[in-house]
């Protein structure tokens, strides 16, 4: 009898221990599951917050670049019209700053696209832009760009080839002074090529025209203007991107 009682007691104890182990294991598993669900929800919330902040910054930068492109288009197009470099059909110029309505919109959209592409290419090509990263340098770049456009309208040369070579040298000097990156040079050339093709298409269809064209339907110095404009807008976009990236760090 004592042996039977001892055997029963040991069986009951082992059963209790096993049940306690199972209950503790299930409790730990449930707690781990709760912690994992909390951690997953926190990570998803952080991701949504970061994504919304990134989207907001992207939209804000795009709006600023669009506004800059519109203002530059109004001022520079007015200069070209006053010097009779570009001619528009009758009735087109009765708009803001005596400019065709579609020019500021097209230039603003192009400025937003190019200005957002520059920092995007810098990050994906592993070539961060660290040369003269300050707003004072960006403002000087804008002033030089406006000066190049002013020179294209007011400087008188013996022929358009001399003017084009001079503006090409000034545009390369602008890139060397305020950029010096391969991505900036490549994107500036791409911008100049595409914008010149669009200008050729518009002139060919009679939307507007250039006086004394020497490069198919446009002036030969026009790609230089587009190149320097792409570099200028790119520097603005880079500075805006740098400011939006540094703001959370400073806070």
TrEMBL record:
<protein>
    <recommendedName>
        <fullName>Insulin-induced gene protein</fullName>
    </recommendedName>
</protein>
<keyword id="KW-0443">Lipid metabolism</keyword>
<dbReference type="GO" id="GO:0008289">
    <property type="term" value="F:lipid binding"/>
</dbReference>
<dbReference type="Pfam" id="PF07281">
    <property type="entry name" value="INSIG"/>
</dbReference>
<dbReference type="GO" id="GO:0032869">
    <property type="term" value="P:cellular response to insulin stimulus"/>
</dbReference>
<keyword id="KW-0256">Endoplasmic reticulum</keyword>
<dbReference type="GO" id="GO:0036316">
    <property type="term" value="P:SREBP-SCAP complex retention in endoplasmic reticulum"/>
</dbReference>
<comment type="function">
    <text>Mediates feedback control of cholesterol synthesis.</text>
</comment>
<feature type="transmembrane region" description="Helical">
    <location>
        <begin position="185"/>
        <end position="204"/>
    </location>
</feature>
<keyword id="KW-0812">Transmembrane</keyword>
<keyword id="KW-0472">Membrane</keyword>
<dbReference type="GO" id="GO:0032933">
    <property type="term" value="P:SREBP signaling pathway"/>
</dbReference>
<feature type="transmembrane region" description="Helical">
    <location>
        <begin position="157"/>
        <end position="178"/>
    </location>
</feature>
<keyword id="KW-1207">Sterol metabolism</keyword>
<keyword id="KW-0153">Cholesterol metabolism</keyword>
<feature type="transmembrane region" description="Helical">
    <location>
        <begin position="216"/>
        <end position="237"/>
    </location>
</feature>
<feature type="transmembrane region" description="Helical">
    <location>
        <begin position="63"/>
        <end position="81"/>
    </location>
</feature>
<keyword id="KW-0753">Steroid metabolism</keyword>
<keyword id="KW-0446">Lipid-binding</keyword>
<dbReference type="InterPro" id="IPR025929">
    <property type="entry name" value="INSIG_fam"/>
</dbReference>
<keyword id="KW-1133">Transmembrane helix</keyword>
<dbReference type="GO" id="GO:0032937">
    <property type="term" value="C:SREBP-SCAP-Insig complex"/>
</dbReference>
<feature type="transmembrane region" description="Helical">
    <location>
        <begin position="101"/>
        <end position="121"/>
    </location>
</feature>
<comment type="similarity">
    <text>Belongs to the INSIG family.</text>
</comment>
<dbReference type="GO" id="GO:0006695">
    <property type="term" value="P:cholesterol biosynthetic process"/>
</dbReference>
């Amino acid at each position: 009898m004592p042996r039977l009682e001892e055997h029963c007691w040991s069986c009951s104890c082992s059963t209790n221990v096993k049940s306690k182990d199972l209950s503790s294991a299930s409790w730990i598993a449930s707690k781990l599951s709760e912690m994992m669900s909390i951690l997953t929800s926190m990570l998803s919330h952080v991701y949504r917050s970061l994504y919304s902040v990134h989207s907001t910054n992207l939209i804000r930068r795009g709006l600023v670049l669009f506004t800059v492109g519109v203002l530059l288009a109004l001022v520079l197009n007015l200069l070209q019209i006053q010097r009779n470099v570009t001619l528009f059909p009758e009735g087109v110029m009765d708009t803001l700053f005596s400019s065709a309505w579609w020019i500021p919109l097209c230039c603003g959209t192009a400025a937003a696209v190019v200005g957002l592409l520059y920092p995007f290419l810098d990050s994906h090509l592993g070539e961060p832009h660290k040369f003269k990263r300050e707003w004072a340098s960006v403002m000087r770049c804008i002033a030089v760009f406006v000066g190049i456009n002013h020179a294209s309208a007011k400087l008188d040369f013996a022929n358009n080839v001399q003017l084009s070579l001079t503006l090409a040298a000034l545009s390369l000097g602008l890139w060397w002074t305020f950029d010096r990156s391969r991505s900036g040079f490549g994107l500036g050339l791409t911008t100049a090529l595409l914008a010149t093709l669009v200008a050729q298409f518009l002139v060919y269809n009679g939307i507007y025209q250039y006086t004394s064209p020497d490069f198919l339907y446009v002036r030969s110095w026009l790609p230089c203007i587009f190149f320097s404009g792409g570099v200028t807008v790119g520097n603005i976009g880079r500075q805006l991107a740098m400011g939006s990236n540094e703001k959370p760090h400073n806070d």
